[in-house]
Design brief:
Layout lengths: L18 E7 L1 E6 L5 E9 L4 H14 L10 E2 L4 E5 L7 E7 L15 E12 L1 H8 L7 H19 L4 E2 L2 E11 L3 E14 L2 E14 L2 E2 H8 L14 H11 L3 E4 L7 E3 L2 E6 L4 E3 L5 E3 H9 L9 E6 L2 E4 L3 E3 L11 H11 L3 H15 L5 H5 L3 E2 L4 E7 L5 E2 L8 E2 L22 E5 L8 H17 L11 E3 L6 H16 L5 E6 L4 H15 L2 E6 L8 H14 L6 E2 L5 H4 L3 E9 L10 E8 L7 E8 L9 H16 L5 E7 L6 H19 L6 E8 L6 E3 L15 E3 L9 E6 L11 E8 L5 H11 L14 H15 L1 E2 L4 E2 L14
Parallel strand pairs: 25-26, 25-27, 27-28, 30-33, 33-34
Antiparallel strand pairs: 1-22, 1-35, 2-11, 2-21, 3-5, 3-7, 4-5, 6-7, 8-9, 9-10, 10-11, 12-20, 13-14, 13-20, 15-18, 16-17, 18-19, 22-36, 23-24, 23-29, 30-31, 31-32, 34-38, 36-37, 37-38, 39-40
Helix pairs in contact: 2-3, 10-13, 11-12, 15-16
Organism: Rhizophagus clarus
GO molecular function: RNA binding
InterPro entries: ArgoL1, ArgoL2, Argonaute_Mid_dom, Argonaute_N, PAZ_dom, PAZ_dom_sf, Piwi, Piwi_ago-like
Amino acid sequence: MEERPLQITRRPGLGNAGRRIRVRANFFEVLSMQETNILHYDVNITPVVPQRLNRKVFNCFVEQNQAALSGTKPVFDGKANMYASTGSLQLDADSFDVDIGEDDGAVTTRRPPRRFRIRLRRTRAIVLAELFQFLNGRADFTENCQMAIMAMDIIISHSISTKYPTVRRSFYTPQGSKHIFGGLEAWQGYYQSARPTRGRMMINVDLSASAFYESGQLIQVVAKILGLRSPDDLRRGFSPNDHHKVEDFVRRLRIKENHRTPQRKFKVEGLTQTPATHTTFDLADGGNTDVRTYFQNTHNKRLIFPFLPCVIVRRNSFIPIECCDIIPEQRYIRKLTGRQTDDMMTFARQNPNIRANKIQDGLNILDYRSNDYLRQFGIRISTDMTVVDARVLPTPTIQYHPSSRDHHVQPKDGVWNLRDKKLATGAILGSWAVLSFINENKLPDQAINVFLREFIDTCVQTGMDIPNKRPPICRENPIGNTEESLKKAWLKAGNVAKAQPQLIFCILPNTGQDLYGEIKRVGETVIGVATQCIQGVHTNRPKKQYCANVCLKINVKLGGMNSFLVPEHIPFVTEKPTILIGADVSHPGPDDDERPSFAAICGSMDARASRYAASIRVQERRYEIIADLANMVKELLKTFYQTCGRKPVRIVFYRDGISEGQFNSVLENEVKAIRAACQALEAGYKPTITFVVVQKRHHTRFFPMDRQNTDRSGNCLPGTVVDGNITHPFEFDFYLQSHAGLLGTSRPAHYHVLYDENGFNADSMQTLSYNLCYIYARCTRSVSLVPPVYYAHLVTNRARLHASGTPITFGVVKQELQKVMYFV
């Protein structure tokens, strides 16, 4: 008999734990919408042109064919879908010729077409009654529901997408844009999405940001790309490196001529290798000339920068850089540099008050009330942020070693420190070496010894045992053979201590990833020794707080335990043998065609849920389901048994990195894999399983309504939980803001319980998830995600560093490190 597919768990009721408050959420209620069906049409536009021109073609078609469309104004997604209100539209299938008139601003290497053909074919009526049934918890989510929500997304974005650059659900405006390094601008964007919630549809509106090319004179932007003060500094010409930088920036950029009227528009194909004075081409009369002479004779244009290369706009067609202007509204889609990323982060980071005000600015630009398309579909949207019921969960108590002066800690606002506290289980560090990649002139041995004294004192005060207080100091070249450098330090550590080396403490000259990555690859997959990297700048006047943070990392890398929760605050874990598992899959970047995806799971090893072991696999690129999950879970279950001598009878599996559209397939595949792992260990071994998806990539934000429920950063307090109003109509989900705010507006984690054999209610699941956020090993702050998921994320990031060679090969973490938290 075929197994029935697993059903997603329904909400067991709302939570009651904690202090009740109210907060604003960036959701805007859909006050009314039509109850009749929406018609869906397939749209085919020929010839094929970019999406923005598609929209212009469609709008011209609507204006020119109002009679055929019975006076209606359908909406279009810019690709292949049209939606219309049922009304009086009788169209089934037809084709129309469309003339878009004069220049539309499109840019190609050839003159763009002016006449188009649109073919329409009616596919279905979207039954809105099914959506209303779903919203009220009386029916499951059907294809009709999905189509209706997609249609709403197009209806609310159709008008705005004809006025502003649009990327998926966000549109961007130059108002308030800011220059960032290298010829780019940061633009403010506004995100909007139709969301089904309990009993009603809502529109989620949030801020977004994206980089755009700076418009205007190309010569000015070229100076900025090269970090120069003005174009005058270009008189020295281009070095080979300058040429590469500029060509990489301008390739595929849309430009227009500025030396004549009408201004023709082009897409840049590249840069000439020669300057304008030496770039030649054939004339129509059979002669030959260079670009500088041609522009002087034909356009009466004397070039100021004839010694710079020209842009190539098509074969044998060249334009001097100074005769080009960059067309506005072009999004920069390549990878940003570190400095540009920092600039973008600064621009996008808004404290809650400013973010709420800017969201309201976005509402004003969207102007839902005056939107004819919304009116046609009977949609009215509130312009007030939704006020939602929330609760602030009680703070758990953290336990340190009993000999500590302050061994039970109840943090305030999600933050505490290590003063007067000793680690729950301090590790012994006897065999180790210091490896400095900074030469003795810049960082003398004396400075390293001063740092080590402070660092060792802090570690000992915090509960570690360091019998070897004078480790050997080695020095190596940062661009030398890192593997050899680490092996030498490892041997020296072992020879001095006459014991197996436990740690290589590396001092790095900067934050560069190459050296750091190679240290981790060699330490973890070649030698099998823990490594701790710090930047040289921190050795100067060492701060106790910094030393304490490093101590936290080293302690768990050596098998120690930093802290744990008092048993009564995680009863689900302490009452019966329970393993917590976090899982994540990370994928290569969009420009990376070689690297695979990495899957990692991290599992707790005992009843204190503070120490974790990891299992990792390389898998097919962009494959979201964890392919070898059964064997990975089996590894962690074995480790749990070896550590505490008992088999888990309960499994809580927190899964990161999947979207709503993948819920069913991931649930079906991965719960089966967990069950298979248990069966493979022992026939009849059937621990109860709870499967929870954790999402951080969403646009839900909360804004406090009064000062007493606000932390120092202006955000909601740690422990703020929302499980009604804006959550799923009937499934078991909630938003939890578990961390103290630092900069900008905090993003809550969205927890969605897909499957539950453990009988959690809302309070027990929310409290467990929140309390766990206080025992993340790397810091003395509550964190924004449950630690098992955080650790899985760290492990997938670390796995990327374990790659080497061509073709790429991936090192396996050495056995001696697999049962300690080497990844912290």
